[in-house]
Amino acid sequence: MQLIGVLGGTFDPIHNGHLHLANEVLEKLKLDEVKLIPSNIPPHRPEPSASSECRKKMVELAIYGKQNLSVDSREIRNKDISYTIDTLESLHKEFPKDALFLIIGEDVFKNINTWKSWESLLNYCHILVATRPDNKTDVLCEEIKKWKDDNRADDFNILRAVPSGYIYFIDIPIIEISSSMIRECYKINKPTNNYLASDIIDYIKINNLYK
User: Fold this and answer.
1) Contacts for 63-68 with beta carbons within 8 Å, 24 or more apart?
2) Which terminus of the chain is more solvent-facing, meaning fewer CB atoms within 10 Å of its CB: N or C?
């Protein structure tokens, strides 16, 4: 059974924080692969500034030469609203014998009950919640707190044994970067060298993005 991480996002643009999260989960939990999946039309935020093809290309540039990271463009090919449950169902059909690990931040987990068919997510995957070491998860609504308590595992070996069904919290130092912050930098001509790989900076400049 392969252990496959799933990291979705608009990646508008993909930045060092995304790559840090993918690499930390990959290395700490010894996953076989992490798939980065650019969304086509995100259901819970405004439409991305860059086109889906540009965002996919930036992900490809960001992970070029990096072992065990790959880009999966199924949400872009779908050309519809990108619901995580549909993506996981599609991945599960393609990799029926493997374990899928949905990677999300704690801020996203706190609102997971707004997702389409959120209570069915664990039918197709485990959920890895990246938390700051100094953060607590007690600020959850009762509905999510009960779901977490019913399905939480604190030993990762439990998740290795079965393909889906558990929620696991992993402490990862979060890099304080957001794509919206980077887009704002471009609007005011502020350097982004500390946030983006040089290939991404070049691509944004050549394609005149975020002006």
Assistant:
1) 63/19, 63/36, 64/199, 66/19, 66/23, 68/26, 68/31, 68/32, 68/33, 68/34
2) C
